[in-house]
Write the structure tokens for this entry.
Amino acid sequence: DIVARIIAPKLGENLGQQIVVENRGGANGILATELAAKAAPDGYTLFLGTLGNLAVNPTLYKTLPFDISRDFAPVTQVADVWLVMLVHASFPAKSVNELIALVKIRPHPINYSTSGTGSALHLAGELFGMVAGIKMMHIPYKGSAPSLTALLSGEVELSVDTILLAQQFVKAGRLRAIAVWGAKRSPLLPNVPTTAEAFPDYGVTNWFGLVAPAATPPDIRARIHVETVKVLRSPDIKERLLSQGAEPVGSTPAEFGAFLKAETAKWAKVIRNARIEVD
């Protein structure tokens, strides 16, 4: 919602159309995705999806009322949102390597909280455990606020969330950021190293991507792509996105399509290996 409302006014100016941001919550994004998939393919309905909507749900759920690859055409990857691994300020480990060493000598796994089962945060944690070779016990909460509260109160030892929500606690000294889960450091927490600095092949962000109903005419999709990229490259929009912990991307439709396929395969493997299921 935040990302959509940042780019919508300027994109509307570029297209000469008013853009209305419509939220449809429920079923881990499935209701909104279905609505967009079945919308008229005339360029007047677009879907700003996430890693979860577009790359995770097709594997996480056994049946869906749509098919991402069949029902949508990629327009562009809009932004990457930085994730961060957090511990309480009193936790003994101060780096990724110290955390791993500590967990490996303990008889029980470390527990970590997220905003819910099957979320990008949950999957990022499972993948980190696999890459680092440590056992991690996922504790799901109903949203980021109770997840971070659990860490602050000592109910859990570690948490995964977005930098935007976590930075206030880090800067206040109540939580410690062990690592940013991305390929490069975040300007919001420039002194916090990335997991990629310890594991070069590990880089995870919660990304956002723009898609259109598959039958939308190519010329309409092309114009929407061009104007969206212009918006993402404008200095004021870039600055506003970065302030929210999101880095603008603006890839081509082909690049985003290839990225989407790779992400779907990547997270399908994590879901199978971790035996993640939802009710």
The first strand starts at residue 47 and ends at 50.
